[in-house]
Write a structure and sequence with these properties.
By secondary structure, the chain is mostly helical. It is built from five helices and three strands; from the N terminus they run βαααβαβα. A three-stranded parallel sheet has the order 1-2-3, sandwiched between helices. Strand 2, helix 4 and strand 3 form a beta-alpha-beta unit.
Length: about 160
C-alpha cells in the first residue's frame, strides 16, 4: 500500500482470527475470543490509516485540478501536487471461518485434520468472495482505498 510509485491494486487480506463473534459465556470462550479480537484489530487500524491518507491524496488532486494552469506550472505547486494520486486500492477481506469445537489452542493445531479443515473452509470462502467480485461497481471518487468486508463481518456485527 505504500509502494512508490503507487498503482491501482487488488489486495486480499486474510483474517486468520474472526474479528466478530458471539459473546463468550465461559472462561475458555473468553480466551478464544481474546485471540480473535487481539489479532484482528491490528489490520483494521492499518487499513483505516491507509484509507485516510489516500483520501487526502485524492483531495489534493481534486484541489490541484481547480487551480489555474499558470499556478499548476509553478515548481512549488508541482511539488505540492506530487503528494496527490489517482490510484485505487481495493482491499478485500477474507475471513477464516470459526470451526466447530475450536478453542484457545486453535493457533497451535497443526494436526493434519485441523490443517485440512481450515484449508477447505478457507478455500470455500475465497471462492465465494471471488464470485461476488465486490471490487466492481460505483465508487466514491475521493476514495483511494476501498475496503470490502466479508459479508460475514457485516452479518455478525449487525446481530
Amino acid at each position: 500500500m505504500d509502494d512508490d510509485p503507487r498503482r491501482d491494486s487488488l489486495i486480499f487480506t486474510i483474517h486468520l482470527w474472526n474479528p466478530v463473534g458471539a459473546e463468550p459465556s465461559t472462561m475458555a470462550e473468553v480466551l478464544n475470543r481474546q485471540k480473535d479480537v487481539q489479532s484482528s484489530s491490528r489490520i483494521a487500524s492499518q487499513i483505516t490509516r491507509h484509507q485516510q491518507s489516500h483520501r487526502l491524496r485524492h483531495v489534493i488532486n481534486e484541489l490541484a485540478a481547480r487551480l489555474p494552469e499558470a499556478e499548476r506550472d509553478r515548481s512549488e505547486v508541482r511539488e505540492l501536487m506530487s503528494y496527490g494520486c489517482q490510484t485505487r486500492m481495493h482491499v478485500v477481506q477474507l475471513l477464516a471461518p470459526q470451526l466447530d469445537h475450536e478453542d484457545h489452542t486453535k493457533d497451535v493445531d497443526f494436526s493434519p485434520a485441523g490443517i485440512q479443515q481450515r484449508w477447505d473452509a478457507g478455500y470455500a470462502h475465497t471462492k465465494a468472495v471471488l464470485a461476488r467480485e465486490p471490487w466492481v461497481g460505483q465508487l466514491d471518487p475521493l476514495s483511494g482505498v476501498i475496503l470490502h468486508e466479508a459479508e460475514e463481518f457485516r452479518a455478525l456485527a449487525a446481530e
